[in-house]
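Shipment paperwork, digital attachment
Item: protein structure file
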Amino acid sequence: MVPGPAKTVAGPRSSHYVLQPSSPGSYEPLWRCAVKANPNFIHTLDPSHVFSGCGGLSEGFHQEGMLETLWAIEMWEPTAQAFRLNNPGSTVFMEDCNLLLKLVMAGEKTNSCGQRLPQKGDVELLCGGPPCQGFSGMNRFNSRTYSKFKNSLVVSFLSYCDYYRPRFFLLEKVHNFVSFS
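Attachment content:
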């Protein structure tokens, strides 16, 4: 008997998991099936983070020993410093992500601080958690100019995906993101 098609199930906090049939009537997360089929699958990924924060989005990957982050972009200095402490082997850019992408697209190899910029082909996994305050139902000011600007940063993340064309990307958003008008 051939296992059925993959299915999506709701996870905690409104997240969703893609499940792959592992045997008839049995499902497990798709990423786990990929790792079983090729144990080096995840270990070969070269990840990069846009809107990295202190690194919590990828911490589970790190704890599982699946990857080590090579590059991260975080403008707020205290958070960038925390990311550096949590990921000592990473290059952390404390600049506007749009300006960094513009530099790379112009053919620059380093930024103004002399840090090597990731080039096309360097990024296999792109993780990002663009600011979500403008999408939050708890934000009663989500139609103001500043919230609209923050909402536009999702497009910045997608621009990174479009330019680098990573094999995989992980975008973290709040529940209202998909239904926001």
